[in-house]
Structure formats: C-alpha cells, structure tokens
Specification:
By secondary structure, the chain is an alpha/beta fold. Helix content is 30%, strand content 24%. It has a 13-stranded mixed beta sheet with strand order 2-1-12-11-13-14-15-16-17-21-20-19-18, with helices on both faces. A 6-stranded parallel beta sheet has the order 7-6-5-3-4-8. α1 runs antiparallel to α2, α2 crosses α3 and α9 packs across α11. The longest helix is centred in the N-terminal third of the chain and has 17 residues.
C-alpha cells in the first residue's frame, strides 16, 4: 500500500526531528513547549475537526487568543483544512471585535476565558480554549478535538493561510485576504517568504525570539515561517528588557525581532545589566513597524554589534526593502533597497521623481492585492499605472536606497508648508529624559495647523514649563524654525501598541475636539 503524501513542512519536520522544540512559550515563570511531533499531531486533530464541521475550502475562522502554543496548532490545522484564520487583537472592545468577525466572514471563533466576553455580540459558533466550564454560548474545544485520531487522514485541499487586519492607526482596520496556495505547491515558499528567509538567513538552526502579541502580522508570520523552515521559536507573552537578555543567553537565540520602543527600553537598562548580557549567539536582530531614531539604532549596533537588520513593508505584500548594519552605518536613516518589487517615487500628479526628491513611495512588480470588502481603499492604494503604495512619503538616493519621511496621513500643513513629523520626533527622542514622543498638527486660526510635540517622560523626570521650553529650543538649534514645535505637552503615556506603532489618530482627534490649544 502506497504511503500518503506528506501534507506540509510541519509533517516533514515531525518525521525528521520529532522531539525538537518547534515553539516554546514563556509566560511569566511558566514555560510551555511544543515539539514538532506534538504540534503536527494537534494540527492534524484541528484540521479533521474543522473539516468535520463542514467548513469548506476558502472559508475562515477567527482566533481571539493570548499568546499560547495552542494558537499554532489551530493556525496549522486551519492551513491543512484549506481555511483562512484571522487572529484578532485582545485589546479591542466588543464592538470592534464584532466588526472584524462580521467583516472577515468567520464561520466560528475560538476564545479563552479571558477573552470570551469580547465576543458577546457575535451570534456565530463559539468555542472555548482553556480549562474550566464554558460560559453560556460557548462549546468546550478540548473534547471536540480529542474525538479525532492524531494520525487520521487529512484532506488534499489548497493550503490555508492567515487573513490579517491592519492595526487601524488611521481608521477602521482593513482586512488583507491573499489567495490560497494550490495543494501541489504546498512545499513552495510564498514569494515574499523567500525574500525573508534569504535576506535574514533563516535555517533549521535558527532560534527565533519574539516578545510581541501573536495577533500582529510580524511575530505570527515570522514564527509560522520559522516552523516551516525547521527552526525553533521562543515566544514571550510580554516584553521585559532584562528578561529579554536572559532569554537570549539561556536559549542561545540566533534571530530576534524588535520595535524601536523595545530598543529604547533595552538601552535604558543599568550599565551593569547591559555589561553582563551574553549576546554571543545573536546573528540577526530585526526591527521594523515604526521609525527608529538613528541615534537609538547606532547605540544598539555599538552594543550588540553589526547584527541589526531593518525592513520596510506591510501585510499587503506589495513591496519590501531591507538593510543590514554595514550599509545602514554608511547611510544612517535608510530602510534599504528593494528586495521585493521595484520602488518608484512620484509627485502628486503621478510623475516619477529623480533620486533625492521627496514624494509618495510606490512599488511595482508584485502580485495585486485587495482590501477585503473595501474597493475604495483598494483603488486608493493603486495608481493609473498599477503601482501600489502603503501611503508613505520618502526618497531614494542614487544607489536606490530608500529613506522614509513619514506617512501622508501624518503630514502637517502649516502656513502652506508641508512638515513631516518623523525628523522632529527623531531629534526629540535623543533629549535626556524623553521616553517617547509624538509630533502632530493641531488647529491654528491663522496657519491652519501648528506643530505640537506630545512627550512621555522617563520615570522620575518632572514635567515643567522650563523643560517644555528647553525641548523647543533643542529643536530650534538643529532644525528650521518652521519645523519646530510651537508648544509641548506632556502625557503619562502615548497611545502606542505592542507592535510599536503609534496611534496618532487618537491624539489628533483629541486635540481637534478641543479646537485651538
């Protein structure tokens, strides 16, 4: 009798190295690990359960879960069942959760005791992952999965995949639903995954660390891909700077992913803690998601060595740039050359601009995408020539290296002058005692908008009018006065999520509601 064909890479690694840890979750003092064999068997049960429920190829499920190993079994099971899986942020309110569940067309949702209340407004099937009795309206997941043999037959369907929603920094989250992969192509890497693997040197020897929620695209996709490629992943439930250094040393981490706020927290550790850190295993430290002040990155390279890599891209998959430490030190502030697609810088009329001139960043040469249920936003992402954009502004140099200036939505128009906040934020972030900064435009009766800096201070630093004025003078010493803040406010914390992105929309709406301030 001929053996059944392997269904995916996970099945291959389960045969090749069954006892190797695929994912290790760190939650406080608790450590939970899934071997490749255990993950393969659990994913098989999930796939059989989902197909047994009657879910058809191309339909979807939603996952409202904290970081935990079971998330990967559910995601891999959905892949094997030919389904989309949508991870939903646990920080949303019930109305926001309901919007995503309705918009993505989920056939069922899986929640935990901590998140069950967030799906109270949704009428579809609900399953509870975790111990204890299921609340009203929920069926327990564990017995449903236990009914299936881990070695049972699996369907030969197209390969399922993630169906992700943007973080919604400029409005409601946008769903990005990319095509499924044919069964015969199930061992082929996606076009953008190939670039990721090769540029960042992933291999079966990789030990990847992430300390971010798995409902974000970067940590989830990176961990899933690392499993595809036979590596091991360390997933921490929350970021702690000192704990991060201990995990790197303990598990001999080779690859890791960070956002600039994490880098700033690492640099703020006491000198003695930093000096004792064993970073000898680290080969590739990746950062993205938010602009990184050049001085912060330079200090991290001085400390960790030339292991820092940066990329610029998005879940839409329309383009990707990347840069290593050596090139970044020659071109501080750059986010790299195109690794996926071709970069075009265009003015407001759609004319291509030469190197050095600032304009909207567009990409060509990648598969077309669409925002789910939003043809207007999809159309706005493309121009007449078929180029696509994330909506950011920047320029390329003579070598084709991209530099970002900011998002079009962050543009401040003051007295007819276009001002992009990133340059101002990078400068203010270097001022002693500044923990985080957002520069926004607020209403002005004469100029339309004026520049305001909203500052989060380090613990123990006292906010005073004198400090506010010193920050303004610091800007005036380094920038054109047109770009400098006319006022500084202090805030206990800025609206920044775990993915590193700053939700400026919330600040802008707050000040717009006040009027002139």
């Amino acid at each position: 009798m001929q053996a059944s064909p392997l269904i995916d890479h996970l099945a291959h690694w389960a045969q090749t190295c069954p006892d190797k840890v695929a994912v290790r979750l760190i939650d406080g003092e608790q450590t939970l690990a899934l071997t490749y064999r255990a993950l393969h068997e659990r994913a098989s049960q999930v796939a059989q359960w989902l197909t047994g429920l009657g879910l058809q190829e191309g339909e979807g499920i939603a996952l409202l879960l904290e970081n935990q190993p079971e998330l990967f079994a559910l995601a891999w099971g959905a892949r094997r069942a030919g389904l989309y899986y949508t991870p939903v942020s646990t920080h949303l309110n019930p109305a926001e959760v309901d919007y995503i569940l309705q918009d993505c067309g989920a056939r069922l949702v899986i929640a935990t005791p901590r998140t069950a209340a967030l799906v109270q407004g949704w009428s579809g099937p609900r399953y509870l992952l975790g111990e204890g009795s299921a609340p009203p309206g929920f069926a327990p997941l564990a017995p449903a999965l236990a009914a299936f043999d881990p070695g049972g037959p699996l369907p030969e369907r197209r390969v399922g995949r993630d169906f992700l929603y943007s973080s919604g920094t400029t409005g409601r989250p946008k769903g990005i639903r990319r095509p499924l992969t044919a069964w015969d192509d199930r061992f082929k890497d996606a076009y953008d995954a190939v670039v990721w693997r090769d540029f960042f040197h992933f291999s079966p020897d990789a030990v990847y660390l992430t300390m971010a929620p798995l409902y974000h695209a970067a940590p989830l996709r990176s961990t899933m891909r690392n499993i595809d490629w036979g590596g091991s992943s360390i997933v921490a439930s929350r970021f702690d700077a000192e704990r991060a250094l201990r995990l790197i040393a303990q598990y001999r981490v080779t690859h890791s992913q960070w956002v600039p706020t994490m880098m700033i927290r690492l640099l703020a550790l006491p000198d003695a803690v930093r000096a004792q850190a064993d970073l000898s295993s680290m080969k590739v430290a990746i950062h993205a998601a938010a602009p990184c002040p050049p001085e912060v990155k330079r200090r991290m390279i001085d400390w960790w060595g030339p292991v820092w890599y940066e990329y610029y891209g998005g879940s839409e998959g329309i383009g990707l740039t990347a840069i290593d430490s050596a090139e970044w030190l020659r071109k501080p502030g750059a986010v790299g050359r195109a690794q996926l697609g071709v970069i075009h810088i265009k003015d407001g009329e759609g004319r291509e601009l030469p190197p050095g001139e600032q304009g909207r960043i567009w990409f060509s040469g990648t598969p077309r995408f669409a925002y789910h249920n939003d043809p207007r936003k999809t159309a706005a992402a493309y121009d007449a020539s078929g180029c696509a954009t994330f909506g950011d502004i920047g320029h390329v140099d003579a070598d084709g290296c991209l530099f970002l200036s900011g998002r079009r939505t962050d543009l401040i128009l003051s007295g007819g002058v276009n001002i992009y906040p990133q340059e101002i934020e990078n400068l203010l972030a270097t001022y002693p005692g500044v923990r985080d900064v957002a520069v926004i435009g607020v209403p002005h009766p004469e100029f339309g908008e004026e520049v305001k800096a909203v500052i989060e201070l380090e613990p123990g630093i006292v906010e005073t009018p004198e400090l506010a004025q010193a920050l303004i003078e610091h800007c005036r010493a380094h920038l054109s006065h047109l770009k400098c803040p006319r006022s500084v406010d202090f805030a206990p914390a800025l609206p920044r999520r775990e993915n590193g992105k700053l939700y400026k929309r919330l600040l802008i709406e707050q000040y717009a509601a006040r009027g002139v301030d």
